[in-house]
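S.,

Sequence below, as promised.
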Amino acid sequence: MPQQGLRGAPRGRRGEPDGRRHGAVGDSGGRECRTPSRNDNGSRRSVAAALLLGALGACVVLLGSGRVWARGTAAVGGGTVPLTADGGDVTGLPAALAVVGLAALVAVFAVRGRGRQLVAALLALSGLGAALAALLAGDGRRALDEQAARTAADSAAHVATAAQTAWPYATAAGAALILAAGLLALRFGAGWPAMGGRYERDGGPRAARPAAADPDRPEDLWKALDRGEDPTR
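The prediction came back faster than expected:
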């Protein structure tokens, strides 16, 4: 009889046949779809933005420090001699602070709590200091005067004309990127993961693995099926 066949089939919690229950589990895969929270997405974006800005800014500063910042001419022996001064001749501070900023950018992920805030502040200050140094010493006249004195073999010699290139401003722009990375670390760094921590892709700690199902307890078997596990293993 049809009723006897239905009565003999295993049934679920609410009276559904076991086949329907298993079909529901198979369709869903036994796993809940976790939608990433808005805070998780914001944390990931801030980490990526800080890393990109800090690394790009340091590269720009180091590149700009090796370019010509100023050009000029000096009167030597009744004629004129062209002179150039690169960023290292004008001031070595932006390049040094860019290296400090790179170290701080890596260290900000190695510490937590108060230490992370201090490292983030160091990152921001290194960018600010590099920008100010590039802008304040960017004309390069002092470096050109030193080259004029060496060229003319006269300590009283000075550069006759001087012109500034665009590289000091490009270096300052790169330093501003380092500053922005530091500000991001100060604002959002408390929620960033630390190196060596056990984190899932969503940035949270890994959930504990559920205990094995007890075959003598039917409710444990149903819970294992809900999770997509095979309770017979």
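The two ends are 34 Å apart (CA to CA).

Coffee later?
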